[in-house]
Every structure is written in C-alpha cells, then in structure tokens.
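Today's session is about reading a structure prediction critically. Students often jump straight to the picture, but the first step is always the sequence itself: look for stretches that repeat, for charged clusters, for runs of hydrophobic residues. Only then move on to the predicted structure, which in these notes is written as discrete structure tokens rather than atom positions. Here is the chain we will use throughout the hour.
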Amino acid sequence: MQIKEIDFVVAWVDGNDPQLNKLRLKYWQEQDQSSRTPKPNPPPSQYANNNEIIYCIASILRNAAFVRRIHVITDRQTPALEALADFGFSDAELAKISIVDHRDIFGNLVELAPTFNAMSIETLIHRTPGLADHFVYMNDDFFILKPTSPSDYFAAPETPIVNGKILPYSRTYLRIKLSLLDISKKRKNVRWSFLTGCMSGAMAAGLRFHYVCLDHSPRPMFRPILNEYFESRPKALRDNAKHRFRHHRQFQPQALASCLSLNQGKLKVNRDTGVVGFIRPGSASGFDAQFDDLIDESGQPPESMRFLCIQNLDQATELEQGKLLAYLGSTLRA
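Below is the predicted structure for this chain, in token form.
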C-alpha cells in the first residue's frame, strides 16, 4: 500500500484550568436556557486532565512509528510535553508533535470561538494547517498498545478502516425525532445523542437507508473528501460548528466522513469488537478488576487488542490511576 504520509490528530483540553472553567460557565449562563438548574454539558468531569495526553502521544510515537506529524488541537493551552523525555524518544521523534490552536482551525469562523463542544471542534479538524490527506483522529483517552502499520488504518489509498457497523435507518424517522427535540428544547435541556449524530451524518452525506454506527475507537479519515464537501456547503460547516455546547442537531463529524467515503465505495468497516479494550471506573468489583480482566497472566492484553480506551480516569482512586498509568508507562518506555 502506497500511502506516503499519515498524520494523527488529538483534541486536548486541560479541564483543571480555572480560566477555562470560568469562561465555560460564563457562556453557559449566557445561553437561552429554560432549565432552572442549568449545568454545563458535557459535565466538568469530561474535561478533567490527568495528563493522559502524554501517554496518548507516547503510544502514537512508539506504536505508530510511521506517523508523519501529531497535531494536538488545544485552546490556548499547552500540554506538559517535557514529560515525554522520560520515554526515550529521539529529538526527531519529538519534532513530529505540533500544537494547533483552535483559532488556526476556526479561521474565518473565529467568531464561533471559544467553544466547549467536541463536535464543533471535530467539525473543523480537517482545516488543521499542513494536515496530511490521510489522518487518524483520536481522543486523548486512547492509547495504542501494540505496533501498528498504515494497513491497520487504511485498506488502500483514500480508503479508511473504521470500527463499527453499517445499520439501517429512516430519514423520515430522524427528521421527526429532530423536530420533536426542537420542541422539547424550548422547555428543557436536551442532550446530544451519539446515535442520532451518526444518523444525521448519514443524512448529511446523502445516504437514504443506512448509516455508519462508529465504535469508540481511533477514526481514520481522508481529508480531501471533507474539504470538497464543506467547500461546496459552507453553511453546513458553520451550522455544525456554531454551537458552543453540544446540540441535538449536530451531526457526528467522523460519521459524516465515513459515510462520504462509503458513498464512493472507499470505506472498510471492521466489526471486530476485540480490537479496542475499554476500562471504566464504577463497577461493583472496582476499577482494578476491569483492568485485570483485559490483561493475561503474562501481563499482556489479548492478541487482537491493539487499542485501549480509559474513560473518566479522574473518577478512579489515586491507587487505581497509578496502576493504569504505570502499566502504560512500562509498555511505552524504550
């Protein structure tokens, strides 16, 4: 497979920043809210920063060594990249990392910033300066556990591999549902739905009968297909990026990209659920037990598992956090 350049894009926010929290609350209170007890959506815990970004970047450098550049999307913040020195990376490897401010991707839509909405940010990441045509989007709670190659992300040039399913849907049902949510929002806060966002992405892409339901995993995309779509539909770009907080009318940007590729017959959908391991706090048996369930007697994850997602690490105890980060550190250091 001849793909010369593949970039990774990681969105990151330091939710411990008091200025950011103050700004988020300010804009939330300025919204037209009918709820008597408005709360930022998503909840503050989603913004929490436990320095996972360092392990995320280290996992890309270590296990996706083919990467050309790693673009970290931030809002006037800089992660503590000096911590990467402990992982034994060369200066050339560390030089692959670039910090991209929200203003660089908002461009002529800068009046829509600041935003506290991942869907709005993800709508614009294809505008990242210097972004390769083939790129992989990851949240900062994702980690690549084993060496990967371009063929793990792209089946062929211009053909992303996504984890998920192709499912049926009705555009009539979706339109009715969105209209009902429009009415409900006048009386109460309405939460954005991932599945509805994926269906909306399919409808935006022109798919009539089926949509791509994405798993929570790294998401490869072909940038030119998004550029072409939005260049001919600037209103669709603005409408999806204008919401400072998640809105039920927003389509899921990676679902749109996948559906556009599917339309061209250039998408591979992987239904193998064992590719990604998930760890979440809050089970009856504890966070550690879930972690141990993923690791065999030799201290290694299952052969099929290439990616790990640790959600809401901030909700685990310090002991549990330390155990997970120690495991990641031991596997990623040279």
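Discussion point for the tutorial: The radius of gyration is 20 Å.
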